[in-house]
Design a protein that fits this description.
The protein has 390 residues and is of the alpha+beta class. The chain is 33% helix and 22% strand. The protein contains 12 helices and 14 strands. The strands form 3 sheets. Strands 1, 2, 3, 4, 5, 10, 11, 12, 13 and 14 form a 10-stranded mixed β-sheet that branches. The longest helix is centred in the middle third of the chain and has 20 residues.
Length: 390
């Protein structure tokens, strides 16, 4: 089987709910990223054989195959096909896996994997219920309810369950959240994100425009006191809004090619896909899945956690990466070194490609070799991707 190489990786800077990026239609936002990827490698856009794009809220402006609409909103020719993927928060990480598998098989040579989510314009949960007869239809079918009686799947409930299972008290979660903001602020000040961010023009409330090239969600003045003052989300819980990922608008993407693709583009690879894993796990605790997924991925790659130089574990809630650290024995100094979703935002279907973009650039910046990315996903799923910088 052939290899899969990443030759370009880019993302927009995240925008807060109702913030600077909220004026952008999600198809246009993703289209800008597609254009940037092509420009970064100096590619003939007609050489792109497919676009696989992750998106969770496939309703309203993100409906009717948002991937194809992103292509039509870009400079890519109409001949470039596209398809949309929903593996919940792992949607664009799964898009990366699909793209990598496609070029490794030789079925295609040059594929873009991307993701987008405008959580301002398509609110979270919008497509999950619709009017039906005398009530509302739901994804919890009668057979699912019979298998899981009196249970409503909830990511927040799962996050609290993870915290309790691993003995993570509020002070530990608060401290982790502060670290996320501090690392994101330090990375931004040091220009660590400059190479990966695609600047976009945004319109401000007063009608003026500016270039948006810095993540809007970072709390520059975050402190243990300010984070500790935020109310608990559940009376007997341990999590708060400050220890949860931020609602975010954003898009990201990577271009993935095989050996023939490299020659066709005349491109130099940034990284090689070293391993890919996805698992199903308990849908009730739900967010614990990255732990067994990581263990399986390392075993399949013949590696140990200490062999990995940098980790990106999505900060859906602070309990997820802290439990992952405890269970895997990973080095906390290698985890989310430029901050994570608590500070930078979690644009759902766009986060997989966003984290991969940051991981690729962070490995290059540090001269490190191996990176591992994973994230929890609705329904008790988790993807893991291991890459090698070249």
């Amino acid at each position: 089987m052939g290899e899969a190489y990443i030759v370009a990786a880019a993302r927009t800077a995240g925008g807060r709910k109702g913030g600077k990026v909220s004026g952008w239609h999600p198809a246009d936002l993703a289209g800008v990223v597609l254009d940037s990827l092509v420009e970064r490698v100096g590619a003939d856009p007609a050489l792109i054989e497919d676009v696989i794009l992750g998106c969770v809220g496939q309703a309203g402006e993100q409906s009717v195959n948002i991937a194809r609409n992103a292509v039509l909103a870009s400079k890519l020719p109409e001949s470039v096909p596209a398809t949309s993927v929903d593996r919940q928060c792992g949607s664009s990480q799964q898009a990366i896996h699909f793209a990598a598998a496609t070029v490794m098989s030789g079925a295609m040579d040059i594929v873009i994997a991307a993701g987008v989510e405008s959580m301002s314009r398509v609110p979270m949960g919008l497509p999950s219920t619709l009017p039906y007869k005398n009530g509302f239809g739901t994804y919890m079918s009668p057979r699912i309810q019979a298998r899981y009686p009196d249970i409503q799947f909830s990511q927040f409930a799962g996050a609290e369950m993870v915290a309790r299972k691993y003995g993570l008290e509020r002070d530990v979660l608060d401290a982790y959240a502060l670290t996320s903001h501090q690392r994101a602020a330090a990375a931004t000040k040091a220009g660590k994100f400059a190479a990966e961010i695609v600047p976009i023009e945004v319109t401000l409330p007063d009608g003026t425009t500016e270039t948006h090239a810095a993540d809007e969600g970072i709390r520059w003045d975050a402190s243990r006191e300010s984070i500790g003052a935020v109310k608990l989300l559940a009376e007997d819980g341990r999590l708060t809004a400050a220890t949860s990922s931020q609602i975010c608008d954003g898009a990201a993407g990577v271009m993935i090619v095989n050996e023939r693709g490299l020659k066709a583009l005349g491109a130099t690879p940034l990284a090689r896909i070293h391993g890919m894993t996805v698992i199903g796990h308990d849908p009730v605790i739900m967010l614990e899945a990255p732990i067994p997924a990581t263990q399986r991925a390392l075993e399949r790659a013949g590696m140990k956690i200490g062999d990995i130089d940098l980790y990106e574990v999505n900060e859906a809630f602070a309990s997820v990466p802290t439990a992952w650290l405890q269970a895997t024995g990973a080095d906390p100094d290698r985890l989310n070194v430029h901050g994570g979703a608590i500070a930078l935002g979690h644009p759902l279907g766009g986060s997989g490609a966003k984290l991969m973009t940051t991981l690729v650039h962070a490995l290059k910046d540090r001269g490190a070799r191996y990176g591992l990315q994973t994230m929890c996903e609705g329904g008790g799923l988790a993807n893991v991707t291991i890459i090698e910088r070249l």
